[in-house]
Prior knowledge:
The protein has helices spanning 5-8, 93-112, 140-152, 164-169; strands at 3-4, 14-23, 26-29, 31-32, 46-50, 55-63, 70-74, 86-91, 117-123, 126-132, 157-163, 187-193, 197-200, 215-222, 227-234. It is of the alpha+beta class.
Amino acid sequence: MTELLFREDAYLQHCTARVVAADDRGIRLDRTVFYPMGGGQPGDTGVLRLASGEEIAIVDTVKGEGTDEVVHVPAAGAALPSPGTELEAAIDWERRYRLMRMHTCLHLLCAVVPGAVTGGQVSDGKGRLDFDVPGASLDKEAIALRLNALIAEGHDVAPRWIGDDELAAHPELVRTMSVKPPTGMGQVRLMEVAGVDLQPCGGTHIRNTAEIGPVTIGKIENKGRQNRRINISFAE
Length: 236
């Protein structure tokens, strides 16, 4: 298992860590600030910095075989550190922060558009959600207006935990049909946008919606009988 420091503080940009294993799968550390790909959010990139000053470029981060195991994928041809090596793990913060802003923005979109979410993707500077709704019910300009209003209002964003039994008693909390929240460990992590949205999510998020900044709504695509894809990008 890897100690997931980003779960407690998504704003951590680096940490000291020890190499647990390194092979053709990648590098595993005892603790990390690197978020592994999951829930529609890409894995972090960055560097592992050795005591000598040498840096190992990390081009992706993925989940390992065990619970909470994180695999840091090095650039092709990179020399692997030996188990036990002490190093500093540092993420590409500017990229991560853009992903955090967009991920949080998609939570707001869930609050603006009624209907179950059938799919989604967080990308650098843009994102999308698919909704199980009739096309005629979606007004692009109205969605953009309401979404930007929620952003500007500055709602606090914070995690909280509930038990598996409580989640089972409130299935309406699960908005995404394509990705089910992890259960069976006793507790499930929720992300709460104060007064706006509450749903299970293991990704990284900003602390206040005002950090997102203005966004624009792109094309609303027809992806099926009642499946509509809403594309979002930062106005910047």
